[in-house]
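Students often ask what a holo structure prediction actually looks like on paper. The answer is less mysterious than it sounds. You provide the chain, you provide the ligand, and the output is a string of C-alpha cells encoding the 3D arrangement of the protein together with S-adenosylmethionine.
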Amino acid sequence: MKKFEGVYKVKGKLATLNSSPGFRVYDERLLNKGGCEYRVWDPYRSKLAAAILNGLNEFPFEGDSNVLYLGASSGTTASHLADICSHGLIYCVEFSRRMMRELLQVTAQKRNMIPILADAKKPEQYVYRVGSVDVIYQDVAQAKQAEILLRNTEAFRPRYGMLAIKSRSINAVKSPKQVFREETEKLKGKFEILQNVDLRPYDKDHIFLNLRVKK
Ligand SMILES: C[S@@+](CC[C@H](N)C(=O)[O-])C[C@H]1O[C@@H](n2cnc3c(N)ncnc32)[C@H](O)[C@@H]1O
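The corresponding C-alpha cells follow.
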C-alpha cells in the first residue's frame, strides 16, 4: 500500500524502498516484498514518520525533489528522504562534527545525500554548494528556529517548508503553547501554514508545521 509518493505500508509498518539494498542506517528492520527491499521507518526516531502516521495531508516530496535538510544529525530522517527522492539530492547541513562523522558513513552509501558541515544560521556558508531546492526540512532544536527557516528560505527560494519546532530550545520558561504561537506568527508573512501536526504519542516536545511559500 502506498501512503505518499515513495512511502509505503509494508507488513503493517511505514517504510521506504531502500535505495542502497542491504544497508541499514539506524538498526531499522529491512523487509522484503515482491522482490524489493524496504526500510521500516520508525516514528519514534523520525518526526516526519510520526507526522505521516498522525495524518499529514500534503506531502511536498517527489521522486526528483531536491531538499535542503537543516539539522541532519546522523541521517535518520534524511536517509528516508534519500530513498523517497531517489532522483533528487538531499543537502544535509549539520554543525556538530561528531554527528557529521556518523552522517558520512551514511552518505558514503546513499550517494544522493550531500553532507555539509555548516551552521544553519549562516546560509552564506553553504549557498555556493547547494543547487536549486524544492523543499527545506528543518529540525535543529535551537533558539531562533523561525528566523533560521526564514533566512534559508530567502537564500534558497524553495516552494515548501517543513519545520519541527522544539519549544524548550527556544524558551524554557514560557509555556510551549505560547512559544509555538509566537514562532508560527513569525512565519505567517512568508508561508501559508498548511497543517500543524500533533506528533503525540511518538514525540511530546515538538510541533510539526507543513508550510507552503506564499507567491
Ligand atoms: C533533533 S536533531 C535532528 C534529528 C534529525 N532531523 C532526524 O530526524 O534524523 C537536531 C540536530 O540539529 C543539529 N543542529 C542544531 N543547531 C544547528 C545549526 N545551527 N546548524 C546545523 N545543525 C544544527 C544538531 O547538532 C543535531 O544533530
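The CA atoms of residues 117 and 181 lie 31 Å apart.
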